[in-house]
TrEMBL record:
Alphabetical list of PANTHER family matching this protein: ATP-BINDING PROTEIN RV3427C IN INSERTION SEQUENCE-RELATED, CHROMOSOMAL REPLICATION INITIATOR PROTEIN DNAA
Domain AAA+ ATPase per the UniProt entry, residue ranges: 85-221
Record InterPro entries: AAA+_ATPase (IPR003593), IstB_ATP-bd (IPR002611), P-loop_NTPase (IPR027417)
Protein name: ATP-binding protein
């Protein structure tokens, strides 16, 4: 996948690693699942799709973002940090390169790091379906709840059918989070030029300023796993 607007992966990781080092944090230390259960992580597992309940944010730039967000958290009850203002992360890659895996891995890593975390996750298609006007449903209230959520995952931005209404919803949601500088994890399989055409210049401009961009490349892991299963079955 080619994207001339993308910042090199190594550049993002090095910049965030420099921030962490200046704060006395070793960016090379991996956040792994703890030996003792963490109640917040256990509670989150029920909301994480089964396929991603063991996800790990093992990409260097994603792991560095997790540490930067954790370090920037405000102290709360019993000294545990909570999500504060911070940079967003735009994870770009073709189908099957592990974008959603890294996004849920980031959530799990923040919880493992002891961050008090209120978060929500949705796909772009589900977002528009849930907010579409219908009798007895307060879509405006739900939109504001998403806009104010300390950490939001929007998976597959650009995959849903576009319209003036979806562009307006995306603009309102992203603009609110942009103004409040709330961290947002966004995945997409579109390069910035195609994404800009799909969601509009105003949204794309805000995403460019508020987000670090990570590009995942390589083969489709789902197809590779399916091919390996067929090989084993045939052996």
């Amino acid at each position: 996948m080619r994207d001339r607007d993308a910042q090199p992966i190594g550049g993002i990781a090095r910049r965030l690693a420099g921030i962490l080092t200046a704060r006395g944090i070793d960016p090379a230390v991996q956040l792994t699942d703890p030996v003792e259960p963490i109640p917040a992580l256990q509670a989150a597992q029920a909301r994480i799709p089964a396929r991603y309940q063991a996800a790990v944010a093992d990409h260097p730039a994603v792991a560095a973002w997790v540490r930067a967000i954790a370090e920037a958290g405000r102290p709360g009850p019993e000294g545990a940090p909570g999500i504060a203002q911070g940079r967003s992360l735009l994870i770009v890659g073709t189908t099957g390169t592990g974008k959603t895996h890294q996004a849920y891995g980031a959530i799990r890593s923040l919880l493992i790091a002891g961050v008090r975390l209120r978060w929500k996750a949705t796909t772009a298609a589900d977002l528009y379906a849930e907010l579409r006007p219908r009798p007895g449903h307060d879509g405006e209230r739900e939109l504001m709840d998403l806009a104010r959520c300390p950490l939001l995952i929007i998976d597959d931005l650009g995959a849903a059918k576009n319209s003036e209404w979806t562009e307006e919803i995306t603009m309102r949601l992203v603009n609110r989070r942009y103004n409040e500088m709330l961290p947002t994890l966004i995945t997409t399989n579109l390069g910035m030029a195609d994404l800009r055409q799909h969601i509009g210049d105003r949204v794309a401009s805000r995403l460019t300023e508020m987000s670090d961009k990570v590009i995942l490349d390589g083969p489709d892991r789902r197809r590779a796993l399916a091919a390996e299963r067929r090989r084993i079955a045939a052996a």
